[in-house]
Known about the structure:
It is built from three helices and 29 strands. With 374 residues, the chain is mainly β. Strands 12-13-14-15-29-25-24-19-22 form a nine-stranded antiparallel β-sheet. Strand 1 and strand 2 (39-41) form a beta hairpin.
Amino acid sequence: MKKSILAALAAMALVSCGESGLTLSGLDPKDFETEADGKATGLYVLKNNAGMEVCVTNFGGRIVSVMVPDRNGEMKDVVLGFDNIADYMNIESDFGATIGRYANRICKGKITVDGVEYQLPVNNFGHCLHGGPKGFQYRIFDVDSVSTNSIVLSYFSADGEEGFPGNFECTVAMTLTEDNAIDIRYRATTDKATVVNMTNHSYFNLAGDPATDNSDWILTVDADSFTPVDSTFMTTGEILPVEGTPMDFRSPARIGDHINADYEQLKNGNGIDHNWVLNHAGDITAPAATLVCPETGIRLDVFTTEPGIQVYCGNFLDGTITGKHGQAYGFRTAVCLETQKYPDTPNKKDWPSAELRPGETYCSHCIFKFSVEE
């Protein structure tokens, strides 16, 4: 996209900020302006008539902040992230990112497509995680369009990028709806058979306070089964029932009552970091998962057309990363709810396919719906 167009879009983002030039979440759009790989970055502010605000940067297609009201009407920023582009570029993280080409792990970084084996980079316990060390979360997306409440980002991933086959073109459309939902739609095409699994990796802290961990939050997952992992966080290929295990969140349950149980899967995952097999796969009208913070009353319902959802409870946050407004992000101060194909699906032929072929269009739909419980 031409620099002049990007500059105009950045100006639109600035216009939507308050008189101080800051966003409702206290971000300065100027702190997100830079250029890398021949592309400009910026901060784009989405608002609805209910007063909700979502800030997005085209670096990694990331959600930077989400301002929603609590039960007292006080606005809270409910996602972790950084308040400047330099930290996003220099500190390894997935905060708020669009993940691709393949979210989650691929065993030993190996895939076979149409009889050809491809070696992907290994960047996590000997496996390929989230598209490799320079997946989409570290790429600069083009801004195709932006309005008061929506943005469309696009990215072209060349054949062989991070080892994946096919010239791959994708778009990510984010819309802030009037009922306080972030509607995310992914679309992609390829000129060679490949694999795809895109998601958003927002770290939700519904307390609006990174000093608060997730132990008191209430989680519900509409799944009778999950995919267990080994000690390297790789799926074993099994699908096990949640019945009688700490992985059973079919009824609302306090995270802290489950996550520290003496259970092999929780030890393997360093806590909760697993894929659940959704009961209503493909049904965008049925909540896949619900997260509630009793303290603030803020509720998040997640809807998806995908067959699975990865629930990750921030088990690797350790206080060494300082985020927005100088706040350190400590152990289990967030929950990620990543809608997805199952991990390592390309090597598990009985699982729902992640292949994308020429002439086909990959489509995935996710909704993060916010409300308040009294």
